[in-house]
Predict the structure.
Amino acid sequence: MDKVQVRSLSAICVTIVALVMLAFYNWTVIQDQIFYTVVSLQETHQPGSGARYVEQPKTAQELIQRLRNTTRSIGLGTTYGMNMSATELEDWQAANPCLSRSELIPMYAERKVAKSLPPNPVWDELFAEYSRYHRVCTKSIRDPKGYFVKKDDSSPCKFLVADVAFGTGLGNKMFTLASGILYAIMTQRVLLVPTTNLVPEFTCEPFPGSSWRLDPETFPTPPEQFVTGDGSWILDAEFSDRVDRAMKREPKVNGTSLGPLAYAVGVTRHEWQPKGRFYCDTEQRAYSQSIWMYTSGCIYTIPKLFAIPSFRPVLEGLFPDRMAMTRVVRSLLLPDNTVWDRVRRIHHVYLSGADRQLGLQVRYRDGREMYNKMNDVVNKRITDCALENGLLPRLTSELNSKLLAATNTSAPNPVVKVFIASLFPGVHESLSKLYVLKPTVSGEDVGLVQITQDETQEFSLEADRQAFTEVILLSLSDHLMVTPMSTFGGLAQSFGALTPWFIDYRSESSTSCERSPTVEVCNQFSIKEYSCPHDSDVNGQRIDQVVDYIKDCPVIDHDLGIQLITDFES
Ligand SMILES: Nc1nc2c(ncn2[C@@H]2O[C@H](COP(=O)(O)OP(=O)(O)O)[C@@H](O)[C@H]2O)c(=O)[nH]1
Ligand SMILES: *[C@@H]1O[C@H](CO)[C@@H](O)[C@H](O)[C@H]1NC(C)=O
Ligand SMILES: *[C@@H]1O[C@H](CO)[C@@H](O)[C@H](O)[C@H]1NC(C)=O
Ligand SMILES: *[C@@H]1O[C@H](CO)[C@@H](O)[C@H](O)[C@H]1NC(C)=O
Ligand SMILES: *[C@@H]1O[C@H](CO)[C@@H](O)[C@H](O)[C@H]1NC(C)=O
């Protein structure tokens, strides 16, 4: 990891912490080396039923069926059963209230211009079945820590601890976790989320009768960044070595019978996401025989899951429109009641009743200095973009003739509400100067709303809650204009199922903005070729040449990444 990379990546995910991490980097490497020599001594262990190799399902229905079979095999005849009783469910819902689960989707449907995403019954069925699996597995092993420490593998259930790199903002957290969530579902692993990353503190518990919360104070997670971890985990380098050695011993087995290579594997990071070899069939076959996995980082990687050949049939069946992120966040990452209460109040007083809502997300990642330098040019581009694309009405210097002529106007002017999310006041001031002083040609009245302007990015539960509130309010827009590379705006786009316009932030540019080719966001800093030494059918090939709906991200957004092209546009 050289300095240039650290700087450019820190601009994306870990704004402040990266410098501290650089200082600790050498220390971490030393830790890892000590750790590897310890774990190599215990390479063999006897597999239980959870560690048996099973091929990836070929269809979404087969995945659902497998989850159901596992749930049945461990749930039937137990006190907790396969399903919860109605009273159990009511009690759980009373203890884990989540108003947004029933109230958010109808608000998207009420938008007057934006299209609603049609329902996806296969995804809903999978989510329900996975929730049941989660509950029954969690009940059956009782205590995740005890199960882990004993290296137990008597249950057919497997587990994923899905974490997020320390010190990241809301958007990066949610995209990273969403990637872990979809991976857990695809690989039939019980999803557990360390509460230190705070996501379980501002989202709803997603699985009825169960909990995804993992207390990292008591649960032994692997060594992460500069935090000391537990040595029971095999990390990437050692895992790849074991795969290589096993494949050398039996080159013909094609990964199918590698046998369990490790009880617990921590997927360490390269550029804040799993390394290229993670996205290979041979490695995935090997991972599938480990009982525990741990992932972390700060980058969205769902596009790369679509690149894994053995995952693709199920993912294509589940998301024929590729609206994967929207389904995941709307089912599993909903705002808890504290956040939802803010959304409802602010929406009610400032945004409801509009004929159209425009969302504007304006981010100056490097803070005040960048703001001072770019505020004028960014504001001009926002206005130009809004006018060129009909997102805001044009101004006139003449007074509204209709208003003046009529002494009794029965029909009030249509209202366009602009919700602005920014750490700075610049764009609100700039638009106020236009729309407060002058009427519009169309006779539409334009209202501007910005609820915070904190200037600096904070790292706290309160900062995440407020950021999430503003993301949801942005997502309720009919049209959305966002800052390139920003996962904050990207999260609003995913919740709202919106195809955004990227404001042009390049200093030398003659365009004001550009429409995104997709609702999906960019998998930033992604390696664009398969690096799968044991899968000669794809190794070295460009992913976009193997999978036709995966493309380079647009240059205006982020030129070092790939993304899914959606069949839905709004
Ligand atoms: N409330 C609020 N917070 C913001 C805004 N812009 C940035 N932030 C803060 O800065 C963080 C930005 O990190 P992140 O969401 O990962 O977005 P990214 O860095 O642009 O990809 C957020 O989580 C907030 O804490 C904003 O418009 N409103
Ligand atoms: C589920 O179990 C049934 C009955 O035991 C079996 O016929 C079926 O093949 C299993 N399905 C899958 C996908 O494992
Ligand atoms: C559990 O609930 C599912 C979905 O409602 C149903 O199909 C299944 O038959 C139930 N199983 C048992 C054992 O009650
Ligand atoms: C590897 O195994 C898979 C799954 O059984 C099979 O579909 C594929 O054809 C095999 N590839 C080779 C090169 O043997
Ligand atoms: C204004 O017009 C509306 C509808 O045309 C009518 O119902 C109302 O009585 C009028 N009000 C006045 C004060 O003239």
About this structure: The chain has two domains: 49-332, 337-564. The chain is about 40% helix and 10% strand. The pocket of 2-acetamido-2-deoxy-beta-D-glucopyranose (ligand 3) is lined by residues 82-83 (CB under 6 Å).
